[in-house]
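Friendly challenge for the regulars: who can give me the structure tokens for this chain first? No prize, just bragging rights.
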Amino acid sequence: MMPPASTHHDAFGVEWAISDAPVPYPVALAAQEARVAAIRAGTATELVWLLEHPPTYTAGTSARAEDLVEARFPTFSAGRGGQWTYHGPGQVTGYVLLDLNRRGKDVRAYVHQLEEWLIRTLWRFNVRGERREGRVGIWVAHDGVEEKIAALGVRVTRWVSWHGVALNVEPDLAHFGGIVPCGISQHGVTSLAALGVMATVAEVQAAMMGCWAEVFGQVPPG
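First reply, four minutes later:
Bragging rights claimed.
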């Protein structure tokens, strides 16, 4: 059971849920797991869930203990790919639960689509987000430095995806100091607010919804 959220289905049958109150990480994890099982069973539609978390550190399957520098906030094992990530207020987390049986069974292509979704969302705010070879996430170059503005971490269970993306709108960037984000110490993190873009979480959520069909489009009925 998902926490209270406003929901609707788009023209392609994907359910969109937006939670107004921060959702504790274990609650989100359990809700995703239940929804994945329902999608696999054919009793639920695909889902994109946009939310914020209370300040939280999560460890992916490649996380190293030494990269948790200071456990300032609750820590959880996420079960997704990747390393350490911070979630908190002012950051839009998007959990993407899709039936990849209907979408080509190509995890690499799916991750590329998630990246493109973030890039197009950022472009709506006149921010150029870019991929970097060998570095997970979406990056921005400014003032001679490169910093991460969005993270990705996915898991696929019998060709149903879960977990997803996290885009920094206006989080407290100091909270990232308790970890080595994604195991990369030589580059920092940034946000739309730090780049001078005064967008709200709701505006970014709306942009993400608006860009979705451009990237993921229609899938065969199933």
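The mean pLDDT is 93. DSSP finds three helices and twelve strands in the chain. Your move, everyone else.
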